[in-house]
Design a protein that fits this description.
CATH class: Alpha Beta
Distance between the termini: 12 Å
Structural class: alpha/beta
Shape: globular
Helix content: 25-40%
Mean pLDDT: 85
Largest sheet: 4 strands, parallel
CATH superfamily: Spore Coat Polysaccharide Biosynthesis Protein SpsA, Chain A
Number of domains: 1
Length: 119
């Protein structure tokens, strides 16, 4: 089952870099997931965001402001059977399981750990 991880982003390059690095360490087979960063017009400019993404994800630009439009824009280009939404300030732990009802993993924000489930 293929998973599309959609990361909405705006103006937080340092945390985006940390998030993408953690996604790169997933134990889930890389052939079974894609990462899409949906940038919401960060003031640093698309090229600066692209330099942080550095080929680790597909980068798209979403003109309409807000995390919702960014998530929707990422979902529109996703090819996975399962969509997983991850904020750019999260540091994901490895995906624990994928089944027809979704995936289970742990994510940690700098302030508190929480269990996440994507469907």
């Amino acid at each position: 089952m293929r998973v599309s991880v959609i990361v909405p982003h705006y103006d937080d390059l340092r945390r985006l870099d940390v998030c993408l690095s953690a996604l790169g360490k997933q134990t889930f087979p890389k052939t079974d997931f894609e990462i899409i960063v949906a940038d919401n017009g960060s003031p640093q400019g698309f090229q600066e965001v692209e330099s942080i993404v550095a080929g680790r994800a597909q980068l798209i630009s979403i003109a309409e402001k807000g995390a919702g439009p960014a998530r929707n824009g990422g979902a529109a280009v996703a090819i996975g059977e399962v969509l997983a939404f991850l904020d750019s300030d999260c540091v994901p732990e490895p995906i624990v399981s994928v089944n027809p009802s979704g995936l289970t993993c742990w994510t940690t924000r700098p302030s508190s750990p929480r269990r996440s489930s994507a469907r």
